[in-house]
Amino acid sequence: MPQRDDLLFFGRVSASVSHELKNVLAVMHEQAGLLEDLACMAGKGMPLEPERLAAAAACLLRQVRRGDALLTHFNRFAHTPDEARRAVSLPEAAALAVALACRQADMRKVELSTLSGDPATVTADPFLLCRLVAWCLDIALERPGPNRALTVASRAETDGTALALEGLDPKAPAPDESEGHALAERLGARLDMAPGRIRIVWPAA
Question: What is the domain count for the chain?
Fold first, then answer.
């Protein structure tokens, strides 16, 4: 049931982002408690330590920036179902998918990044594209190469415009590709699985 699978994916991303936001709030709560203790000590006549105040303020600022980035990425993702088809920048789609997958990458101790690649735009369903890239990232994160570093980049190649995910272990067992091929077909693209890499290809006109 494609619609239910789409909803499950949306829920999975929402759960991941909300978990990260709870972590942000937990750190901010801890620092707020520290500031409260310092204020209480100052009220009793004990001297304040500027270094501790500065460290707490810096930590709070980092968490505010982290939370803002999480919400910015989630807001972009939440708007991907707004239009069934539109012009989509592949570098921007790759950057969003990578940002949403950072928690999973960190848990697996894998470095995940985007490369500048070639500027490329395709006409596609933004939500389905995000879901397919996420599927590719899930496959790759389970099969990282020896360097445990994965990269995503848009490419103008001889067989069309592609989004390439590289750095997989070329000797890893082949995954079940059925879901990926089904998503690619819905997207009007082709999924190309090869040792060490995965490509989503939009054939040249």
Answer: 2
Structure tokens of 117? 């690649």
Q: Which residue has the tokens 């980092």?
A: 62
Q: 48 Cβ partners below 8 Å, 6+ apart? A: 38, 41, 42
Per-residue tokens: 6: 């789409």
What b/e readout covers 15-44, taking b as 16+ CB neighbours within 10 angstroms? ebbeebeeebeeebeebeebeeebeeeeee
Q: Give the separation between CA 26 and CA 63, rounded to whole angstroms.
A: 10
Of the residues 55, 79, 103, which one is the last residue of a structural domain? Answer: 79
pLDDT digits (tens, 9 = 90+) for 98-143: 999 988 899 999 999 998 878 888 999 999 999 999 999 999 999 9
* Same domain as 198, residue 119: yes
The C-alpha atoms of residue 177 and residue 71 are separated, in whole angstroms, by 32
| Listed residues 60, 79, 98: the one ending a domain | 79
Single pTM value for the model: 0.86
Q: What's the gap between Cα 96 and its chain centre?
A: 6
| H or E stretch covering 111 | strand 111-114
Q: Could you identify the residue written with the tokens 């933004």? A: 126
Long-range contacts: 75-78, Cβ < 8 Å, 24+? Answer: 77/13, 77/130
34-69, pLDDT tens digit by residue?
A: 888 888 888 888 887 888 889 999 999 999 999 999
